[in-house]
Design a protein that fits this description.
The chain has no helices and 16 strands. With 185 residues, the chain is mostly beta strands.
């Protein structure tokens, strides 16, 4: 148990039997009132991002998530299948639980699976991934007033906006936090 004022972005804690990740913290102290701690948190089970308020001095139970390197094997339709590279044990994670993450997964990639009390919470992606463009609009000349962009479809089904000079068949880097183009691979 720690004081809520000691939480930092990236910390995990439990509150009312839910597991949360701290995204942002704001401390507000006035002369006539106790400190108010406002947290922007992500519920790790539902994925919802909300704000919570606590009075300064409130005790919060922090937790550590177990992290294990596993290899993504395939999508069987309803689940994504991962394999532990040392024991060759396979686990299945419900596809609905990994809606955002599955857009960046190709076969044979190694990812970090996070679990808490033997419950799989999710997976941690690298900050950028290299994906191949399978379909891309042709470049249109003349649109150079603004940052000229066009639509591209990637091998995982993700649609992104890329600069005009990028062509079909090229491999590009995609940011996994917001799903945007970052550069050529």
């Amino acid at each position: 148990m720690i004081n809520v004022t000691e939480l930092r972005p990236g910390n995990y804690f439990t509150h009312e039997s839910n597991l949360f990740l701290v995204i942002d913290i704001a401390l507000n102290k006035t002369a006539m009132r106790k400190m108010v701690v406002k947290l922007k948190v992500k519920n790790m089970r539902s994925g919802a991002v909300t704000e919570m308020s606590f009075l300064g001095g409130t005790a919060i139970e922090t937790v550590r998530l177990d992290k294990k390197q596993m290899q993504f094997l395939y999508d069987n339709g309803t689940h994504l299948v991962f394999m532990d590279q040392s024991s060759y044990e396979q686990i299945e994670i419900d596809k609905e639980h990994l809606e955002w993450e599955k857009q960046f997964l190709r076969g044979d990639e190694t990812v970090e699976i996070m679990s808490y009390d033997d419950e799989i919470i999710g997976l941690s992606l690298p900050s950028k991934v290299a994906l191949k463009i399978i379909e891309c609009e042709p470049a249109i000349r003349g649109d150079t007033v603004n940052k000229a962009m066009k639509d591209a479809l990637l091998e995982t089904g993700l649609k992104v906006r890329v600069p005009l000079f990028i062509n079909e068949g090229e491999t590009i880097m995609i940011r996994t936090d917001d799903g945007t183009y970052d550069g050529r691979a």
